[in-house]
Amino acid sequence: MDQQAADRSGDLPGDHRPPRRYHQPDHSRGSRNTGAARSTALDSAGLAECSWLLGDIKTAVQQTHSAVDAALLTDSTQVREKLGRLYTHTVGHSSADVRDARVRVRELLTV
Q1: Which domain holds residue 20?
Q2: Domain identity same for 2 and 41
Q3: Could you tell me if 83 and 104 lie in one domain?
Q4: Could you say which of 4, 40, 48, 60 is the most buried, measured as most Cβ atoms within 10 Å of its Cβ?
Q5: SS3 sequence of 37-77
Q6: Which helix (H) or strand (E) holds 96?
Q7: What's the pLDDT score for residue 23?
Q8: How far is CA 11 from each of CA 3, 7, 8, 14, rounded to the nearest angstrom?
Q9: Do 1 and 42 belong to one domain?
């Protein structure tokens, strides 16, 4: 592969990995098997936290529910810590949707 072709494809000179167009594993949350509840919970919690910080309440609530759903399938301390941080983002919001998400997180953390 010449330098211009490498630049166009995003591959680095001297990169011995397969070109990116042939090496694109699917890392989307939907592609994981059901045994990956911990990773799914952390992904959803991270997306929820970003949404809370951006002020996108609707998406934040949806992702918080997704995180709790996945967290129910795992016993991870890291997931519980992440959900604890998520809980703080729900405080101060009075809509019914946010209250529901907050209650679900609180119930999970107190079990």
Answers
A1: 1-30
A2: no
A3: yes
A4: 48
A5: HHHHHHHHHHHHHHHHHHCCHHHHHHHHHHHHHHHCCCCCH
A6: helix 96-109
A7: 45
A8: 9, 6, 8, 9
A9: no
